[in-house]
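Good morning C.,

I know you're traveling, so I'll keep this short. The sequence:
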Amino acid sequence: MPKLSPRMLTICDHLIPGEPVWDFCCDHGYMGLRAYHLGQFPEIHFVDQVPHIIEKLESRFYSKHQKPELPQKVFFWAASGENITVSLQGTAIIAGVGAHTILQILRGLFDRDGGLQASRLIMGPHNDEEFLEETLSSWEEFCLKFKPTVRTQVVEGSRIRKLLIFDKIL
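The tokens, ready to paste straight into the viewer:
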């Protein structure tokens, strides 16, 4: 396992044990792999729109990371996040992409019947953080379903990165 950045470690600290983890725009899959190795989550979903990224990640997972003693189910989705067609439950991580991409994924998931049933959303926008916060706070459908629970900043090298965490309103 590669060493994780402070931002990724903070994200891992906010995953909900006992619930699935969705790693959107997963690229190298560091978040999902960390969740898998922690062994506290029944399902790990890796999602990236670039098929060769998912193919490479899946191959690497089965050759280097899969452990017979870890019973989690692992899924690999070569699709844009907004096109996921199953009901999304557990913790959804959308990090390392811009605010517009995060919003596109969330809007697509909201448009599905029962599509976004996540207990927690963790967002780490790569840019336009204020735009993302403003848009989410004025998006009525989103505000009826999720409430902000954590807004934090993590120092990563010379940058300060925001993390926004929302929990489902029960």
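Safe travels,
E.
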